[in-house]
């Protein structure tokens, strides 16, 4: 019974949520390096939004292997507000 209620829960929820997810992988042939980027953003109904972007590359002894000893290349955090004009 509990599992049935848990599986039906998404049908009962009345709020609408929108999330943007962008994941990219890039391989540079000349340097034989793998780069990855993940971008996640969300905007609430009141106009406030936020976004997080994380960039990393494969490191260690063998940068040719994807997802090998990931090194952070930078992060970006954004908070925004979208307003309506009359």
Automatic annotation (TrEMBL):
One of its GO terms (biological process) is oligosaccharide transport. GO terms for molecular function: porin activity. Residues 1-18 form the signal peptide. Keywords: Signal. Pfam families: KdgM. PANTHER family: OUTER MEMBRANE PROTEIN, OUTER MEMBRANE PROTEIN-RELATED-RELATED. This is Protein yiiY. It comes from Salmonella enterica I.
